[in-house]
Amino acid sequence: MKTAKEKIKKEVTHQKCDINLRSVDVKGSLRCGSVPAEGARVQLYRVKSENASEIIDSRTVGPSGLFNVNGNTQGKPINQTDIEPILRIFHKCGDDAKKTGHRRFQLGIPKDFVSNTRMAKHTYDIGEYNLDITYPGEKRDKNFQ
């Protein structure tokens, strides 16, 4: 049986973890011209980084073109619990079949949509993006698979 001191220590440790926990939720719709951008990939990063370990969620867009990605910092070291979320979209919309790699652009997610809880309190809706358009900062990622 645990002593009162052990119970308090466990509760305080649990509260510390919850204090540092951050989460974010993003949804939207992707089109390629007039059709849904089925097969596009959407990745949610904890911070702006090329490091795959910073991905907190990743989804392939289905036949409707709709997506929803969300994640949190549960399990991350305390020095990695802050979130400055970046949404990256990878696609081949409008590409010639001979081109290698994927087109890629990213969107910053406002800090107002970062919650101090395990599940995000609010969802950031990016609306609808037509991937036929070349977006500012768009790049070609030849290593994306």
UniProtKB/TrEMBL annotation:
<protein>
    <submittedName>
        <fullName>Transthyretin-like family protein</fullName>
    </submittedName>
</protein>
<dbReference type="Pfam" id="PF01060">
    <property type="entry name" value="TTR-52"/>
</dbReference>
<keyword id="KW-0964">Secreted</keyword>
<dbReference type="InterPro" id="IPR038479">
    <property type="entry name" value="Transthyretin-like_sf"/>
</dbReference>
<keyword id="KW-0732">Signal</keyword>
<comment type="similarity">
    <text>Belongs to the nematode transthyretin-like family.</text>
</comment>
<dbReference type="GO" id="GO:0005576">
    <property type="term" value="C:extracellular region"/>
</dbReference>
<dbReference type="GO" id="GO:0009986">
    <property type="term" value="C:cell surface"/>
</dbReference>
<dbReference type="InterPro" id="IPR001534">
    <property type="entry name" value="Transthyretin-like"/>
</dbReference>
